[in-house]
TrEMBL record:
Residue stretches making up the Obg domain: 1-158
GO CC annotations, alphabetized: cytoplasm
One term of GO molecular function: magnesium ion binding
Native source organism of the sequence: Acetobacterium bakii
Subunit text: Monomer.
Protein name, as recorded: GTPase Obg
Amino acid sequence: MFVDKAEIILKAGNGGHGGVSFRREKYVPMGGPDGGHGGHGGNIVFVADQGYRTLMEFKYKRKHKAENGENGTGGRSAGKSGEELIIKVPVGTLIKDKETGRVICDLSENGQSFRVAEGGRGGRGNMNFATPTRQAPRFAQGGIRGQERTVILELKLLADVGLIGFPNVGKSTLLSVVTKARPKIANYHFTTIVPNLGVVEWRNFSTFVIADIPGLIEGAHEGTGLGDQFLRHVERTKLLVHLLDASGSEGRDPIEDFHAINYELEKYNKKLAERVQIVALNKVDLILEDEGVEEIKGKLEALGYEVFIISAVTGRGLDQLMSRVVLLLDEIGEVEPIFDIEPVEETIYTPEFRNNQFTAEKIDDVFVVDGEFLDRLINSVNFEDLDSIGFFQRILKDKGVFTKLEEMGIKDGDFVRLREVEFEYYK
């Protein structure tokens, strides 16, 4: 089964909480704080692996979670960091953020990797909060949550040459002849339901990859017949070989077919339509005389295209066609990707909850404050310790929470709710 698109949910590991601990030794009755740091949460990294051919496994496993960091402990012992989660995907996988549609990375080379979800930092232990005036802090810093995001995986085949044309013009047959690929061949529309790849080694020239792109029909750029899915796979190709049924065996006009397919390419992506394209008039073995074929060839050449007369079944003209393909690939060289990839920093993720933004509203006589930084703050506080509560109040003041509540008209004795914590306000 070939799967070329999948949607998955990623959850990087949470950072471990800093430890709250004090030295307890026989001859050190007033030992200081020695709580260690929490471990960092595991990242989620995607790696391109040429041993993978489809995205099928992501149809069955949609949620992927990295390991959390462990909490810090006494003796200045830091918690263990969470293991990095490595997800292997086929070479040619494009990863997009579902929410924004932004391309995160393009894994186009074997072994290429990219960190797509970043684990949270571990919190600092209470030994980091000791001061000359606060020698026994009974609180530590909470760990930061790891990134959560939904991404779209799209597999774009890495073919140098794309075979395009209407169904049943002979693309699969040609592929089977010039490569060792063995695609299924039958006489009905959309015979090829997945793109077939083959490696061509022609007359001791350098090898190249050729893809039989499943048959296009009118309306493909709008999704008719799944054409939009198939068209994605020709985006990377350097050269398009356009096969036409010169025999008209299905009652279609080759020239009309030619314009129809190019119209679909133009509508789908103008850059794609500008790729170098040559034409192969196939199935001439079904024609008694070449006179009509020469007429078609002349019309296409008048439009500026190189045209080759071939028969994928008998082998006629294949040497000239493949030799020209080899030369053109060398002339064309590298091509600019058709899809746009936004530049990304090495660290692509800055969690929103690392900022100081918050919201406040009054619901049923309770002032409700919400903000991502509250999770970490609440995890940092021991609400049974006065020093820790003082630390909690000071952070809220520094963040501007109390100022905002006063602007909203809060009075002494009113209730404030922050996540699962609720308290009475007194200035």
